[in-house]
Amino acid sequence: MQNTDFLNAIKWTDDGLVPAIAQDAETGRILMMAWMNRESLSLTAEQGYAIYWSRSRQQLWRKGESSGNTQLIREIQLDCDADVLILKVEQQGGIACHTGRQSCFYRVLKDGEWQTAEPVLKDPKEMYS
Amino acid sequence: MQNTDFLNAIKWTDDGLVPAIAQDAETGRILMMAWMNRESLSLTAEQGYAIYWSRSRQQLWRKGESSGNTQLIREIQLDCDADVLILKVEQQGGIACHTGRQSCFYRVLKDGEWQTAEPVLKDPKEMYS
User: Fold this and answer.
1) With respect to CATH, is domain B5-127 assigned 3.10.20.810?
2) Smallest CA–CA separation between A25 and chain B, in Å?
3) Is the Cβ pair A28, B28 closer than 8 Å?
4) Structurally, what CATH architecture does the domain formed by A5-93 represent?
5) What is the pLDDT of residues A3-19, one digit of tens each?
6) Distinct helix (H) and strand (E) counts, chain B
7) What are phi and psi of B41, to 5 degrees?
């Protein structure tokens, strides 16, 4: 049986969530940020791949379930306030974003505008067909 | 006058906030996550160093104002959902955490416990004296 003390250490939001930043364990690139509830973090720690909580769908979100782009967990880190997580991951398929890009953070502020600074690696239609 | 269209592109929370992840521009290390409101992001983009919104104090939080550990902005990135920011920063003094550590993410999940995996570089009493 899994020890759940580490879940109690976390300062969950009023909605019972905590933000989780997925970072490529090799390159340090930040891939995405999503949310976890108690169950999803518990499952993530147990099963070794990232399972988030989808706020829009209000259900567990097994990252990569449709696209195959799962995230293997190398390490889970917690911040000083115990209210933010980092997941150090191995990104399967090299694509974290639903737009078919490596990272969700593909826009950069330049001359007062958000400019797209990263190519689409795979057509989303192929990823979710 | 600053163009504010980039502020309108952001999906602010109901409280008018957006999470901002500060990442060391050189090493890729994630230093901290804090929140910004419209004013703090606008000022950050204008002045070139990180200014957050303190939710606990309900006021602008000029990072490093007391400690000297300011964060110079190298780049600001936005994610696909337009609801999370990354600040690529140059961390002055090499310390982002109020505990005197380089990063706020100094705890690692190991054997079902959060274990401290990083030394204190500077006594907080010295930082905030």
Assistant:
1) yes
2) 11
3) yes
4) Roll (3.10)
5) 789 999 999 999 999 99
6) 3, 8
7) -70, -40
